[in-house]
Amino acid sequence: MSNDIFKVFILEDMEADLLLTKRQVRKFLPSVLFAVARNRTEFEAKLIEFQPDIVLSDYNLPDMNGLEALLYVREHLDSTPFVFITGILNDEERVAETILNGASGYLLKENLQRLPPLLESVLEKNAAVLRHKEEEWERRRKNQIGIQKTIAALREAEIPGKEELLETLQEVFDNIR
Question: What's 40's domain CATH number?
Fold first, then answer.
């Protein structure tokens, strides 16, 4: 990892688990800034302002569950990786549900020593996804510019059926936005 400050948001209501999680994160990310929430109110108040690089969340919290937290993150910070660190996701059906709803991974608290390699894997995958999204955005931008130039040139040209071509190009342009 680089020497940049990495921002980790932890949603955890148990102080001992919070301290253990922080210790494991620091093994992988020495330059880390934490934000912590212990319930829904703190979570919603801090998350968006903090703009974390990753969210680590327990599944069972006093006034919400981890799936609600995951969906909130997906709604407000869609590309932010989200990892469950919990004691109860030993139910295969629940694990599948969390992954299908956009979790980047999960770890049982009893295996907390595995957090550094999990973080590395999640962050590498997320970086690849972000690169792909950026490349896709750039490709679409280039296509839009090309179509706009073609439309401009076509407007100046004296070509039979020009209006139909302009309409078609405009439809293509509208569909790639």
Answer: 3.40.50.2300
